[in-house]
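## Example pair
The file below holds two records. Each record gives the amino-acid sequence first, followed by its structure token line.
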Amino acid sequence: MDKSVKRIGFLFLLLCSVFIYADTEVDNTNQGIANASPGDYIIRSNGQKVLLTQADIDYARRQLGLIVDQESQDIPSLVENPSSNGTNWFEEIRNAFSEVWRFLVGLPQYVPSSFFNTMPSFVRSIFFVLLFFAIIGILLSHVLGIYKNRQEWKPKPDSKLMFSYFCGSGSFQQKKIYKEAHKILRDKKWLRISIAGLAFRLGNLTHASKVLMFACSLLYLPMAILGFLEMTLRCIIGTVWLLCAGVVHWILLFILRWISYIMIPIWKIVDRTVRVALHCSHCYSKFDLPKFKCPYCKTIHTQLIPSRCGILVALCECGHFLPSSALSGRSSLDAVCPECDSNLAEKG
């Protein structure tokens, strides 16, 4: 069977499974609320349905004396877990997913309660599933943007070296990373595990079985609606996420760039003090800084010193890092006379 059909079936089963975790009604007593989970609800005497938050549950537990100190309440749950011995890994995975689900269903406490109280439980469940897939798409968009531009370095003018990450290549990569991430974020086709991606493939699916095609046609409309809602959440939340991440990224690069600018002249002085005088046996010229040949592409670099291309190492245009200081092993490279370009018998 086509892989797209398998993915669509898996997602359909996942959407159906949300009803298993749908919120339940608990008794409108301190005992009932204390044993509830975030997302459960109570029915008041006037018939009003109230969704419980973690704060409501903690209040009921304090009334019953089950919580004396919040910090002491949290610590045992981390250290006294009998299933943490690694023998029941399936139970640990199930508990991990359960914690993620409880976190998602506890999100309504951060928004006006009237907004979620008016929602049916299955609508809330579908909303959190869409939110879950949207968050996955946002994080993968960011990661793919970084991965695809990890080898983008800014070349230095009139040189065969690249600027170091902190002195130019970082900001150069940053622009490409977030441009690519925004492009991926708004692409409805790229993510095969997203609802929008599966809806797109479902709409373009062809199969010899008429029964299968009829079933897919029935699934397409709800999948398209859910995919549209997921894309809306992904674009809104993802734009905010990438904007905030871009600002933090820019601030870190700005700080590290100025730290590098301060360190470069210091390392230049250190590098100059440890140099030794060299003589060319061909043109008899005297110098302390020869040219150096890249061992990979044989490119000759004239100023392989601590600079904006790197304090200890510098990136050659061939993609290999070369030592740029005497303290980082620059003398291991083949040296060339800066006057006649003859190979030196003694490495600089």
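Second record, same layout:
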Amino acid sequence: MELMVFLKGNLLALVLLTPDDTSTMQGYMNDHEVTQFLGRDALPMYAHQEKAWLESLPKEGHLVLGIWHRSDEKLIGSCGLHGIDYLNQLAELGILIGDKDYWNGGCGTEAVQLLCAHGFNWLNLRHITLRVLGNNPRGVRCYERCGFVRTGVIPGHVLKAGQWHDEIHMLLTKETLTLTRSSEMETKIAHMAENSR
């Protein structure tokens, strides 16, 4: 099936997911090194479950996209805005870099920037929130680089591998969104903002 690009950055494109991506995404969702940072992994993800989720897209109130590495031509994860509330202009961010070869390479930061800029400039959101586990300092640093600020913490809230972890709550606004210093990225985001006016 032809790749459908929705948003394009420097390293990445955010693309439409299809049932053809079932095997790749199922593999990521069953990798405990990956899901240790998510609110799930106690139960396996079966192929029919992942396929049913992908077949249900688009879902009302959710914008879910695949994270495609442009030069390597590879699906490395997914990201989304969930619980989109158009009245109060709110949404919650979720992201998964499932291919561990692409950790610490700036892919998470670029995906968050692209998706959140779209949320502010095209979906007219005011606030984008997220929840991140305290066992994920790399994720916290990524979100802070993008402009998220901590708004609270629930101590010992999520059980992972026999240990209770804090759940950190964070908030991003259009004013605090921090873009990469890449001129190409800044030009694209500025163009998105200009076209949304």
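Notes on the second record: The domain at 5-195 is CATH 3.40.630.30 (Aminopeptidase). The chain is about 30% helix and 35% strand.
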